[in-house]
Design goal:
Elements lengths: L7 E4 L7 E4 L5 E2 L5 H10 L1 H7 L14 H13 L8 H4 L3 H6 L13 H9 L3 H23 L6 E8 L2 E2 L8 E3 L4 E4 L2 E7 L6 E6 L13 H6 L20 E6 L13 H10 L2 E2 L18 E4 L4 E4 L2 H9 L14 E3 L6 H8 L4 H12 L9 H23 L11 H8 L4 E5 L4 E4 L7 H10 L6
Parallel strand pairs: 4-10, 10-11
Antiparallel strand pairs: 1-2, 3-15, 4-8, 5-7, 6-7, 8-9, 12-13, 13-14, 15-16
Helix pairs in contact: 1-13, 2-3, 3-13, 7-13
């Protein structure tokens, strides 16, 4: 209602006396707790390094918001629940969001507007997306090297998980995907797990077109974008960060189907050079001494059934040999009961269950699928900024490991730490945040602040 110009509202019958609500208090914010984001970002130096890998293309005399300010405004806004830049008009004078980007909450200039942020997103190209992808992964890996310190890392598990991102307009490189039954993108989220830890740490995210499963549906423009799209085949070899560690790649069985996921070729082509071990899929051939499957066999690892098509017929059609005359026949399917899945493979893949929680947090907590730009690379940039915001929130949640809040989802974390009414007061000596004493999560907020370098006083 405030954006429509209404500054005062009257409720004459709610109480014994008329109630007046007026939006006239300056230097107040509803995101008072978000100052914790700047503390964790200063520790990781994430937004600064992301901005450093982008070239400045604007004229020096016409720059009002530098690249680091724009990156911080978008990342911190995403973490606070503002999925796109539409809220910039209301937040450009917010004192807390000014503080987050390093501006004076009272005298500092207003933040960037929605048109400025949109132009910034659409100015990013494929080379920029590639550098941002690499930089995000390097920052995360360096952070975990410092976190683990002298602790020996024996194993690094790399999880690659695709997810659907439905499109609802004229987005570039948006295709119809038969598996998800919609027009969409298929971003890939990469996470790292160290030793026997249960937490899967996001290391990077890559936006992909929804690659059509039929050869005749493939687009030349889609294929042309793959060599420079920052695909997972170009991800940094995370095993090189810990030379003594044994890296392994673990991906979902549905993501390795021929023709539906080009990125699945990464471990197969690089394992001999980087030492990354590709884990066998449950139900695949050549597992723990099981014989390899014949061409034309497909196994469902959940039901334990094998569907056998006519391999000879498929081979005949692929080889170009003349087909025998006769009426068209449907492939005959026969069911078999394969041997049991090896216990070791089952236990390894059972640990992947928590990956769905990471994807749900990205989608429902951070608007990971808010790719509404018309340009593909602008949407890829948005995906990377969302991933960067999630990295900050994961690092913040790690400081709550000894508390019940360690299992909070992103939306709960935001509600209980960031969405806090605050009045900002600036003097010659200091900046004071006046926070409500009746805040129900006061002890939790203080614990996080102390863990991030605050001191009682």
């Amino acid at each position: 209602m405030a954006e429509q110009g209404v500054q005062t509202l009257l409720f004459p019958q709610l109480f014994d006396k008329p109630l007046v609500a007026t939006f006239d208090t300056p230097q107040q914010s509803s995101d008072g707790g978000a100052i914790l984001l700047k503390a964790i970002d200063d520790e990781l130096k994430l937004t600064g390094q992301l901005a450093a890998c982008l070239p400045e293309w604007r004229q020096a005399g016409k720059i009002e918001h530098d690249l680091s300010t724009l990156i911080r405004q978008r990342c911190f806004g995403l973490a606070c629940g503002y999925a796109d830049a539409n809220a910039a008009a209301q937040l450009k004078a917010d004192p807390i969001h000014k503080l987050l980007v390093g501006r004076d909450p009272e005298t500092g200039p207003a933040l960037a507007s929605q048109p400025t942020l949109s132009r910034f997103e659409n100015a990013v190209g494929p080379r920029d997306v590639y550098r941002l992808t690499q930089t995000l992964a390097e920052v995360v890996i360096a952070h975990h090297q410092a976190r683990l310190g002298p602790k020996r890392v024996r194993r690094i598990t790399i999880d690659l998980d695709p997810t659907d991102d439905p499109t609802h307009g004229q987005q570039e490189l948006s295709f119809f995907n038969g598996h998800y039954d919609t027009w969409c993108y298929l971003p890939v989220v990469a996470t790292l797990t160290f030793n026997a830890e249960r937490t899967q740490h996001l290391v990077t995210a890559v936006l992909r077109p929804a690659m059509p499963t039929r050869p005749w549906e493939r687009s030349a423009s889609c294929a042309a974008c793959w060599p420079s799209s920052g695909s997972p085949s170009r991800l940094p070899r995370s095993g090189s960060a810990w030379m003594a560690a044994s890296p392994r790649r673990r991906c979902s069985p549905s993501s390795t189907r021929k023709g539906s996921s080009t990125w699945s070729r990464w471990p197969a082509t690089s394992s001999s050079r980087s030492g990354i071990r590709r884990l066998p899929r449950p139900g695949a051939g050549a597992i723990e001494g099981h014989r390899a499957e014949r061409p034309g066999l497909r196994r469902d690892p959940l039901r334990g059934e094998v569907l056998e098509a006519q391999a000879a017929r498929d081979h005949e059609s692929r080889s170009g040999a003349p087909r025998r005359p006769g009426p068209a026949r449907q492939p005959a399917l026969r069911r078999h009961q394969p041997g049991p899945i090896p216990r070791r493979v089952y236990e390894i893949y059972r640990e992947r269950g928590d990956t769905e929680n990471r994807l749900k947090e990205l989608h429902y907590g951070l608007g990971f699928d808010r790719t509404s730009c018309s340009r593909f690379w602008a949407n890829a940039f948005r995906v990377l900024l969302t991933a960067a915001a999630y990295v900050l929130l994961q690092a913040l949640r790690a400081r709550l490991a000894a508390t019940p809040a360690a299992s909070y989802q992103v939306s709960t974390l935001r509600e209980r730490l960031f969405k806090l009414g605050a009045r900002v007061q600036v003097s010659a000596r200091r900046i004071v945040l006046h926070l409500p004493s009746a805040f129900p999560w006061l002890a939790l907020w203080q614990a996080v602040a102390l863990a991030l370098g605050a001191s009682p006083g």
